[in-house]
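Task card 7
Instruction: Convert sequence to structure tokens.
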Amino acid sequence: MPVKNATRKTLIASSSRVADSVFGRAIGLMFSRPTKTAMILEFSRDSPISLHTFFVFFPIDIILVDSRMRVVEMHVRMRPFTTFVARKVARLVIELPAGTIATSRTRVGDRIELLRVVEKRTGNGRRITVCRA
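Output:
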């Protein structure tokens, strides 16, 4: 699922994985290798957020998104084995490779879109990929 900054019309991540269970959110990026894939921690509603990077052996960027899909807070280059307590509540936490926030020019207040990738067959049997919000 691609992640787009709709305000600035930039692609934040071309692919992502969603962790929507308690276990999935707890594990997050622990023991993983650096990748360009975003990790999205999804909560059922806007919630207080506290994160750690224990057993995440590389720096990451963090974007917190509320239920209106607006960026409410960010953390740039969160180092391994550190903690972070957000000042705002969020529904989504997007964990990204370090440097992604700067590259995408994302700012607090920007609107985020999670795009759905759909494969369709045309009348002549060809497959096309369509992204939808």
